[in-house]
Amino acid sequence: MSAVCRSLLRASVRPVPGFVSVNSRLCSSTASSASTKPTQEQQKVKTSIQRPAPSTSHDWIGPPNRLSNMRPIVYRAPDRETQLEKRLRTLRQETEDWNHDFWTKQNVTFSQEKESFIASQLRAKGLSRRDEQGRNRSLDSEEMAVFYKNFLDTNRTRHANYNKEWYRRNFTITFLMARVTLQNMWNNLSPANGGKKNDPTAT
């Protein structure tokens, strides 16, 4: 039971700011450490303290956020961006931010409820949170399996709604990507355009 719960939990709680300019989608390797008990300020949902403006030539990618565990991305806005390309970029950016917000709230809630569960179980045993050496006491895997199962059951509807919205967004993004690709192919092949991109206002 505990192994199954841990496996399901990894699928429901995603793993943990400066940005780097990338031409080949490489990322900075400087990752900050995760906090087990976020402060009130840490619990506020934010994508980055300093978010750069979109570049015309490359994406901006930062190191993993310590609350959402996701790398923040700012997608490039190419010169002479068409309305269709802008629509695609905007949806991709909104989806990145939506994902960040969801997993920040989810991970903070998970950490808080886990800490509360451990403390309550230790109190029931007449134990304090820390041992004589000042180290945090923990529960065994069978005891934690109860928490994992309860957390998954409590958040089942929330996870289901997230998955539905995630698939809806990805379907739309894929559809828009196909339209942008076809538009660019047509512009490159059309003799009337001379291989030039259409007016940026084209949809």
TrEMBL record:
**Region: Disordered, residue numbers:** 28-69
Cell compartment(s), UniProt: Mitochondrion inner membrane
The alphabetized UniProt keywords are: Membrane, Mitochondrion, Mitochondrion inner membrane, Transit peptide
Q: Which intervals carry biased composition (Polar residues)? A: 37-58
Q: How does it sit in the bilayer?
A: Peripheral membrane protein
Name the Pfam families for this protein: COA8
Keyword Membrane in record: yes
Q: Where are the transmembrane segments?
A: none
Q: GO CC: one term?
A: mitochondrial inner membrane
An example GO biological process term is:
intrinsic apoptotic signaling pathway
The family classification in the record reads: Belongs to the COA8 family.
Q: What is this protein called?
A: Cytochrome c oxidase assembly factor 8
